[in-house]
Amino acid sequence: MRIYLIGAGVIARTHAAAAAKLPEPAELRVADPNPAALASFREAYPEAAAYDDAAKMLASEAARDDDIVIVATPPFLHLDGVRLAFDSGRHALCEKPLAMNVEEAEEMERLAAERGLLLGCCAVRYKGMLHNEAVKRVVQSGVLGEIYHVTFVNKWERSRAGIEYQPQSRWFLYRARSGGGIAMDWGPYDISTLVDVLSPSSIDIAAAWTAKPETAADPTDVVYDVEHHIGAFLSFRREGVRAVAVHYERGTCTHGQEAFIGEIEGTKGAVRWTPYDSRQPVVLRTDRDGKVVEEVVDPGERGPFTVMDLPLVHFFNHIRGLPSLANVNGRAVDHYRFIRSLYDCAETGERRTIDIEGA
Ligand SMILES: NC(=O)c1ccc[n+]([C@@H]2O[C@H](COP(=O)([O-])OP(=O)(O)OC[C@H]3O[C@@H](n4cnc5c(N)ncnc54)[C@H](O)[C@@H]3O)[C@@H](O)[C@H]2O)c1
Protein backbone atom coordinates (compact mmCIF):
# COMPACT_ATOMS: atom_id res chain seq x y z
CA MET A 1 0.00 0.00 0.00
CA ARG A 2 1.35 3.41 -0.96
CA ILE A 3 0.16 6.69 0.54
CA TYR A 4 0.87 9.98 -1.26
CA LEU A 5 0.42 13.13 0.80
CA ILE A 6 -0.20 16.43 -0.96
CA GLY A 7 0.73 18.99 1.70
CA ALA A 8 3.13 18.46 4.61
CA GLY A 9 1.41 20.65 7.21
CA VAL A 10 -0.27 19.90 10.52
CA ILE A 11 -2.87 17.40 9.33
CA ALA A 12 -0.48 15.58 6.99
CA ARG A 13 1.46 14.35 10.02
CA THR A 14 -1.63 12.78 11.54
CA HIS A 15 -2.26 10.91 8.30
CA ALA A 16 1.35 9.73 8.28
CA ALA A 17 0.88 8.45 11.83
CA ALA A 18 -2.34 6.70 10.76
CA ALA A 19 -0.57 5.09 7.78
CA ALA A 20 1.87 3.45 10.20
CA LYS A 21 -1.05 1.81 12.04
CA LEU A 22 -2.72 0.24 8.99
CA PRO A 23 -2.85 -3.56 9.09
CA GLU A 24 -0.36 -3.77 6.21
CA PRO A 25 2.89 -1.86 5.60
CA ALA A 26 2.40 1.55 3.99
CA GLU A 27 5.06 3.44 2.04
CA LEU A 28 4.88 7.21 2.36
CA ARG A 29 5.50 9.92 -0.22
CA VAL A 30 4.91 13.61 0.47
CA ALA A 31 4.88 16.79 -1.64
CA ASP A 32 4.91 20.41 -0.48
CA PRO A 33 6.37 23.47 -2.23
CA ASN A 34 7.29 24.97 1.15
CA PRO A 35 10.82 23.72 1.99
CA ALA A 36 10.40 24.42 5.71
CA ALA A 37 7.17 22.38 5.91
CA LEU A 38 8.79 19.55 3.97
CA ALA A 39 11.95 19.55 6.11
CA SER A 40 10.00 19.51 9.34
CA PHE A 41 7.75 16.71 8.07
CA ARG A 42 10.81 14.65 7.14
CA GLU A 43 12.28 15.10 10.59
CA ALA A 44 9.26 13.23 11.93
CA TYR A 45 9.00 10.80 8.97
CA PRO A 46 12.50 10.44 7.47
CA GLU A 47 11.39 7.35 5.55
CA ALA A 48 8.96 9.43 3.42
CA ALA A 49 10.13 10.19 -0.13
CA ALA A 50 9.80 13.99 -0.43
CA TYR A 51 8.97 16.17 -3.44
CA ASP A 52 8.55 19.91 -3.90
CA ASP A 53 5.72 19.37 -6.36
CA ALA A 54 2.70 17.05 -6.20
CA ALA A 55 2.52 16.45 -9.97
CA LYS A 56 6.18 15.36 -9.95
CA MET A 57 5.53 13.02 -7.03
CA LEU A 58 2.58 11.36 -8.76
CA ALA A 59 4.44 11.06 -12.08
CA SER A 60 7.46 9.43 -10.43
CA GLU A 61 6.05 5.88 -10.69
CA ALA A 62 3.18 3.97 -12.29
CA ALA A 63 -0.10 3.89 -10.34
CA ARG A 64 -1.29 0.74 -8.58
CA ASP A 65 -4.97 -0.10 -8.02
CA ASP A 66 -4.86 0.59 -4.29
CA ASP A 67 -2.68 3.73 -4.16
CA ILE A 68 -4.18 6.47 -1.98
CA VAL A 69 -3.50 10.18 -2.47
CA ILE A 70 -4.40 12.25 0.59
CA VAL A 71 -5.10 15.89 -0.21
CA ALA A 72 -3.97 17.78 2.90
CA THR A 73 -3.69 21.35 1.65
CA PRO A 74 -5.93 24.35 2.47
CA PRO A 75 -9.38 24.05 0.85
CA PHE A 76 -8.77 26.38 -2.12
CA LEU A 77 -6.28 23.74 -3.36
CA HIS A 78 -8.42 20.64 -2.77
CA LEU A 79 -9.87 20.39 -6.28
CA ASP A 80 -6.37 20.74 -7.82
CA GLY A 81 -5.06 17.97 -5.58
CA VAL A 82 -8.01 15.64 -6.22
CA ARG A 83 -7.71 16.23 -9.96
CA LEU A 84 -3.99 15.42 -9.88
CA ALA A 85 -4.74 12.21 -7.98
CA PHE A 86 -7.42 11.08 -10.45
CA ASP A 87 -5.35 12.12 -13.48
CA SER A 88 -2.58 9.88 -12.14
CA GLY A 89 -5.06 6.96 -11.81
CA ARG A 90 -5.15 6.97 -7.99
CA HIS A 91 -7.92 7.15 -5.40
CA ALA A 92 -8.25 10.48 -3.55
CA LEU A 93 -8.96 10.99 0.13
CA CYS A 94 -9.54 14.71 0.54
CA GLU A 95 -9.38 16.70 3.75
CA LYS A 96 -12.48 18.52 4.88
CA PRO A 97 -14.14 20.71 3.80
CA LEU A 98 -14.26 18.76 0.55
CA ALA A 99 -14.22 21.82 -1.71
CA MET A 100 -14.74 25.57 -1.97
CA ASN A 101 -18.23 25.30 -3.47
CA VAL A 102 -20.75 22.77 -4.78
CA GLU A 103 -19.52 23.10 -8.38
CA GLU A 104 -16.03 21.97 -7.31
CA ALA A 105 -17.43 19.08 -5.28
CA GLU A 106 -19.57 17.94 -8.23
CA GLU A 107 -16.54 18.19 -10.52
CA MET A 108 -14.67 15.85 -8.13
CA GLU A 109 -17.60 13.40 -8.19
CA ARG A 110 -17.76 13.54 -11.97
CA LEU A 111 -14.02 12.88 -12.34
CA ALA A 112 -14.20 9.95 -9.89
CA ALA A 113 -17.07 8.38 -11.85
CA GLU A 114 -15.35 8.98 -15.19
CA ARG A 115 -12.11 7.33 -14.05
CA GLY A 116 -13.75 4.60 -11.93
CA LEU A 117 -11.85 5.84 -8.85
CA LEU A 118 -12.87 6.60 -5.28
CA LEU A 119 -13.29 10.05 -3.76
CA GLY A 120 -13.31 10.03 0.03
CA CYS A 121 -13.62 12.89 2.49
CA CYS A 122 -11.99 13.15 5.91
CA ALA A 123 -15.24 14.55 7.34
CA VAL A 124 -15.77 11.01 8.69
CA ARG A 125 -13.08 11.56 11.35
CA TYR A 126 -15.51 11.12 14.28
CA LYS A 127 -17.49 8.24 12.78
CA GLY A 128 -16.67 5.08 14.65
CA MET A 129 -15.74 6.72 17.95
CA LEU A 130 -16.86 4.33 20.64
CA HIS A 131 -19.30 6.65 22.35
CA ASN A 132 -20.93 7.65 19.04
CA GLU A 133 -21.28 3.95 18.23
CA ALA A 134 -22.90 3.44 21.64
CA VAL A 135 -25.42 6.20 20.87
CA LYS A 136 -26.15 4.57 17.52
CA ARG A 137 -26.86 1.26 19.24
CA VAL A 138 -29.26 2.97 21.65
CA VAL A 139 -31.08 4.66 18.74
CA GLN A 140 -31.29 1.42 16.76
CA SER A 141 -32.51 -0.60 19.77
CA GLY A 142 -35.88 1.23 19.78
CA VAL A 143 -35.65 1.92 23.53
CA LEU A 144 -36.18 5.65 22.90
CA GLY A 145 -39.63 5.06 21.35
CA GLU A 146 -40.47 7.51 18.59
CA ILE A 147 -37.55 9.94 18.23
CA TYR A 148 -38.76 13.50 17.76
CA HIS A 149 -36.03 15.94 18.84
CA VAL A 150 -32.24 16.26 18.82
CA THR A 151 -30.06 18.92 20.42
CA PHE A 152 -26.59 19.09 18.88
CA VAL A 153 -24.79 22.11 20.28
CA ASN A 154 -21.01 22.41 20.42
CA LYS A 155 -19.46 25.80 21.09
CA TRP A 156 -16.22 26.98 22.58
CA GLU A 157 -15.68 30.48 23.96
CA ARG A 158 -12.38 30.95 22.07
CA SER A 159 -11.01 28.28 19.73
CA ARG A 160 -10.88 29.90 16.30
CA ALA A 161 -8.63 28.15 13.76
CA GLY A 162 -6.08 30.76 12.65
CA ILE A 163 -6.36 32.74 15.90
CA GLU A 164 -6.46 30.79 19.17
CA TYR A 165 -5.95 27.40 17.45
CA GLN A 166 -3.08 26.97 14.99
CA PRO A 167 -2.41 30.72 14.63
CA GLN A 168 0.36 30.08 12.09
CA SER A 169 -2.28 29.00 9.52
CA ARG A 170 -3.93 32.34 8.83
CA TRP A 171 -5.58 30.97 5.68
CA PHE A 172 -8.40 29.65 7.92
CA LEU A 173 -9.59 33.27 8.33
CA TYR A 174 -9.69 34.13 4.65
CA ARG A 175 -12.84 32.93 2.88
CA ALA A 176 -11.12 32.87 -0.53
CA ARG A 177 -8.73 30.22 0.85
CA SER A 178 -10.82 28.36 3.41
CA GLY A 179 -14.21 28.53 1.71
CA GLY A 180 -15.71 29.79 4.98
CA GLY A 181 -15.40 29.69 8.75
CA ILE A 182 -16.76 27.32 11.33
CA ALA A 183 -19.39 25.84 8.98
CA MET A 184 -16.60 24.64 6.69
CA ASP A 185 -14.23 23.72 9.52
CA TRP A 186 -16.47 21.76 11.93
CA GLY A 187 -19.73 21.52 9.96
CA PRO A 188 -18.44 18.53 7.93
CA TYR A 189 -17.85 16.53 11.13
CA ASP A 190 -21.21 17.50 12.57
CA ILE A 191 -23.24 16.48 9.55
CA SER A 192 -21.29 13.27 9.10
CA THR A 193 -21.86 12.33 12.77
CA LEU A 194 -25.54 13.30 12.79
CA VAL A 195 -26.29 11.39 9.59
CA ASP A 196 -24.44 8.37 10.94
CA VAL A 197 -26.53 8.36 14.12
CA LEU A 198 -29.94 9.27 12.67
CA SER A 199 -29.78 7.83 9.09
CA PRO A 200 -32.00 10.40 7.31
CA SER A 201 -32.64 10.13 3.58
CA SER A 202 -33.11 13.88 3.34
CA ILE A 203 -32.55 16.95 5.50
CA ASP A 204 -34.61 20.14 5.49
CA ILE A 205 -32.92 23.34 6.63
CA ALA A 206 -35.84 25.43 7.86
CA ALA A 207 -33.74 28.36 9.11
CA ALA A 208 -30.03 29.08 9.56
CA TRP A 209 -27.82 31.90 10.78
CA THR A 210 -24.11 32.76 10.87
CA ALA A 211 -22.26 35.28 13.04
CA LYS A 212 -18.77 36.63 13.58
CA PRO A 213 -18.41 37.50 17.27
CA GLU A 214 -15.81 40.22 17.86
CA THR A 215 -12.93 40.09 20.35
CA ALA A 216 -9.82 42.14 21.15
CA ALA A 217 -7.74 39.30 19.69
CA ASP A 218 -9.23 39.66 16.18
CA PRO A 219 -6.30 40.09 13.76
CA THR A 220 -6.21 43.29 11.73
CA ASP A 221 -3.08 42.52 9.68
CA VAL A 222 -4.70 39.79 7.54
CA VAL A 223 -8.02 39.28 5.79
CA TYR A 224 -10.50 37.96 8.34
CA ASP A 225 -13.88 37.54 6.71
CA VAL A 226 -15.26 34.21 8.00
CA GLU A 227 -17.97 33.36 10.53
CA HIS A 228 -17.27 31.62 13.82
CA HIS A 229 -20.73 30.83 15.11
CA ILE A 230 -23.55 29.17 13.19
CA GLY A 231 -26.88 27.55 13.90
CA ALA A 232 -29.85 25.99 12.17
CA PHE A 233 -33.22 24.40 12.67
CA LEU A 234 -33.20 21.14 10.75
CA SER A 235 -35.61 18.36 10.03
CA PHE A 236 -34.17 14.90 9.39
CA ARG A 237 -36.55 12.85 7.26
CA ARG A 238 -36.81 9.16 6.43
CA GLU A 239 -39.77 7.39 4.86
CA GLY A 240 -42.02 5.62 7.31
CA VAL A 241 -40.77 7.35 10.44
CA ARG A 242 -41.56 10.66 12.08
CA ALA A 243 -39.40 13.63 11.00
CA VAL A 244 -36.82 14.50 13.68
CA ALA A 245 -36.39 18.16 14.58
CA VAL A 246 -32.72 19.01 15.14
CA HIS A 247 -31.50 22.09 16.97
CA TYR A 248 -27.99 22.53 15.61
CA GLU A 249 -25.38 24.99 16.79
CA ARG A 250 -21.60 25.13 16.38
CA GLY A 251 -19.15 27.81 17.39
CA THR A 252 -15.49 28.49 18.02
CA CYS A 253 -16.18 31.93 19.47
CA THR A 254 -19.11 33.04 21.57
CA HIS A 255 -19.78 35.60 24.26
CA GLY A 256 -22.32 33.10 25.55
CA GLN A 257 -21.65 30.06 27.66
CA GLU A 258 -19.55 27.19 26.28
CA ALA A 259 -21.72 24.12 25.72
CA PHE A 260 -21.18 20.60 24.38
CA ILE A 261 -24.48 18.77 24.21
CA GLY A 262 -25.74 15.85 22.21
CA GLU A 263 -29.21 14.73 23.20
CA ILE A 264 -31.74 12.60 21.37
CA GLU A 265 -35.25 12.65 22.79
CA GLY A 266 -37.91 10.07 22.08
CA THR A 267 -41.35 9.28 23.44
CA LYS A 268 -39.97 6.58 25.75
CA GLY A 269 -36.47 7.76 26.57
CA ALA A 270 -33.54 10.03 25.80
CA VAL A 271 -29.84 9.56 25.29
CA ARG A 272 -27.33 12.24 26.17
CA TRP A 273 -23.62 12.39 25.28
CA THR A 274 -20.76 14.77 24.56
CA PRO A 275 -20.35 14.17 20.82
CA TYR A 276 -16.61 14.72 20.44
CA ASP A 277 -15.39 13.78 23.90
CA SER A 278 -15.28 10.05 24.48
CA ARG A 279 -14.16 10.52 28.11
CA GLN A 280 -17.67 11.73 28.96
CA PRO A 281 -20.43 9.18 29.62
CA VAL A 282 -23.27 8.21 27.33
CA VAL A 283 -26.37 8.40 29.53
CA LEU A 284 -29.66 6.70 28.75
CA ARG A 285 -32.70 8.19 30.53
CA THR A 286 -35.96 6.31 30.64
CA ASP A 287 -38.99 6.05 32.90
CA ARG A 288 -39.77 3.47 35.57
CA ASP A 289 -42.86 3.74 37.74
CA GLY A 290 -43.28 7.37 36.68
CA LYS A 291 -39.73 8.29 37.70
CA VAL A 292 -36.64 9.13 35.66
CA VAL A 293 -34.08 6.33 35.57
CA GLU A 294 -30.53 7.05 34.40
CA GLU A 295 -28.12 4.43 33.19
CA VAL A 296 -24.60 4.84 31.80
CA VAL A 297 -24.18 2.95 28.53
CA ASP A 298 -21.00 0.90 28.26
CA PRO A 299 -19.19 2.11 25.12
CA GLY A 300 -16.98 -1.00 24.95
CA GLU A 301 -13.22 -1.41 24.68
CA ARG A 302 -11.13 1.30 23.02
CA GLY A 303 -9.40 0.11 19.82
CA PRO A 304 -5.93 1.01 18.52
CA PHE A 305 -7.09 3.99 16.42
CA THR A 306 -7.57 7.65 17.41
CA VAL A 307 -9.98 10.00 15.64
CA MET A 308 -7.05 11.36 13.69
CA ASP A 309 -6.46 7.87 12.26
CA LEU A 310 -10.05 7.14 11.32
CA PRO A 311 -10.39 8.92 7.93
CA LEU A 312 -7.56 6.87 6.47
CA VAL A 313 -8.62 3.68 8.26
CA HIS A 314 -12.21 3.97 6.93
CA PHE A 315 -11.00 4.72 3.40
CA PHE A 316 -8.46 1.88 3.48
CA ASN A 317 -11.20 -0.53 4.65
CA HIS A 318 -13.45 0.65 1.82
CA ILE A 319 -10.72 0.02 -0.77
CA ARG A 320 -10.07 -3.44 0.68
CA GLY A 321 -13.80 -4.27 0.55
CA LEU A 322 -14.02 -4.48 4.36
CA PRO A 323 -16.89 -3.02 6.45
CA SER A 324 -16.23 0.70 6.45
CA LEU A 325 -17.62 4.01 7.67
CA ALA A 326 -16.08 5.97 4.76
CA ASN A 327 -18.22 8.49 2.88
CA VAL A 328 -17.25 8.10 -0.74
CA ASN A 329 -18.23 9.68 -4.05
CA GLY A 330 -21.90 10.86 -4.07
CA ARG A 331 -22.28 10.52 -0.33
CA ALA A 332 -19.27 12.74 0.40
CA VAL A 333 -20.68 15.31 -2.02
CA ASP A 334 -24.19 15.21 -0.49
CA HIS A 335 -22.74 16.00 2.91
CA TYR A 336 -20.78 18.88 1.45
CA ARG A 337 -23.95 20.14 -0.25
CA PHE A 338 -25.57 20.33 3.17
CA ILE A 339 -22.80 22.65 4.45
CA ARG A 340 -23.13 25.02 1.50
CA SER A 341 -26.91 24.95 1.89
CA LEU A 342 -26.52 26.19 5.46
CA TYR A 343 -24.84 29.31 4.08
CA ASP A 344 -27.48 29.65 1.33
CA CYS A 345 -30.30 29.40 3.84
CA ALA A 346 -28.63 31.87 6.21
CA GLU A 347 -28.05 34.36 3.39
CA THR A 348 -31.41 34.11 1.64
CA GLY A 349 -33.74 33.10 4.47
CA GLU A 350 -35.05 30.39 2.15
CA ARG A 351 -35.58 26.79 3.15
CA ARG A 352 -33.32 24.14 1.61
CA THR A 353 -33.69 20.37 1.21
CA ILE A 354 -30.74 18.04 0.68
CA ASP A 355 -31.07 14.38 -0.29
CA ILE A 356 -28.56 12.10 1.40
CA GLU A 357 -27.33 9.15 -0.64
CA GLY A 358 -27.43 5.68 0.84
CA ALA A 359 -28.26 6.64 4.42
N1 LIG B 1 -4.99 21.47 11.52
C1 LIG B 1 -5.96 20.68 11.92
O1 LIG B 1 -6.15 20.39 13.13
C2 LIG B 1 -6.87 20.05 10.92
C3 LIG B 1 -7.74 19.07 11.38
C4 LIG B 1 -8.56 18.44 10.46
C5 LIG B 1 -8.54 18.80 9.14
N2 LIG B 1 -7.71 19.79 8.70
C6 LIG B 1 -7.78 20.17 7.27
O2 LIG B 1 -6.56 19.80 6.63
C7 LIG B 1 -6.27 20.69 5.55
C8 LIG B 1 -4.88 21.27 5.75
O3 LIG B 1 -4.85 21.91 7.02
P1 LIG B 1 -3.51 22.02 7.88
O4 LIG B 1 -3.95 22.43 9.23
O5 LIG B 1 -2.65 20.82 7.71
O6 LIG B 1 -2.85 23.27 7.15
P2 LIG B 1 -1.34 23.76 7.25
O7 LIG B 1 -1.39 25.22 7.01
O8 LIG B 1 -0.70 23.25 8.50
O9 LIG B 1 -0.65 22.99 6.04
C9 LIG B 1 -1.01 23.13 4.70
C10 LIG B 1 0.21 22.75 3.87
O10 LIG B 1 -0.17 22.73 2.49
C11 LIG B 1 1.01 23.13 1.78
N3 LIG B 1 0.72 23.49 0.40
C12 LIG B 1 0.29 24.67 -0.12
N4 LIG B 1 0.19 24.59 -1.45
C13 LIG B 1 0.54 23.32 -1.80
C14 LIG B 1 0.63 22.63 -3.03
N5 LIG B 1 0.30 23.22 -4.19
N6 LIG B 1 1.03 21.34 -3.02
C15 LIG B 1 1.34 20.73 -1.86
N7 LIG B 1 1.30 21.34 -0.65
C16 LIG B 1 0.88 22.62 -0.62
C17 LIG B 1 1.51 24.31 2.60
O11 LIG B 1 2.85 24.64 2.27
C18 LIG B 1 1.36 23.75 4.01
O12 LIG B 1 2.54 23.09 4.44
C19 LIG B 1 -7.40 21.74 5.56
O13 LIG B 1 -8.40 21.37 4.65
C20 LIG B 1 -7.94 21.65 7.01
O14 LIG B 1 -9.29 22.04 7.12
C21 LIG B 1 -6.86 20.41 9.57
From TrEMBL:
<dbReference type="Pfam" id="PF22725">
    <property type="entry name" value="GFO_IDH_MocA_C3"/>
</dbReference>
<dbReference type="Pfam" id="PF01408">
    <property type="entry name" value="GFO_IDH_MocA"/>
</dbReference>
<dbReference type="InterPro" id="IPR051450">
    <property type="entry name" value="Gfo/Idh/MocA_Oxidoreductases"/>
</dbReference>
<feature type="domain" description="Gfo/Idh/MocA-like oxidoreductase N-terminal">
    <location>
        <begin position="2"/>
        <end position="119"/>
    </location>
</feature>
<dbReference type="InterPro" id="IPR055170">
    <property type="entry name" value="GFO_IDH_MocA-like_dom"/>
</dbReference>
<dbReference type="InterPro" id="IPR000683">
    <property type="entry name" value="Gfo/Idh/MocA-like_OxRdtase_N"/>
</dbReference>
<protein>
    <submittedName>
        <fullName>Gfo/Idh/MocA family oxidoreductase</fullName>
    </submittedName>
</protein>
<dbReference type="GO" id="GO:0000166">
    <property type="term" value="F:nucleotide binding"/>
</dbReference>
<dbReference type="InterPro" id="IPR036291">
    <property type="entry name" value="NAD(P)-bd_dom_sf"/>
</dbReference>
<feature type="domain" description="GFO/IDH/MocA-like oxidoreductase">
    <location>
        <begin position="134"/>
        <end position="271"/>
    </location>
</feature>
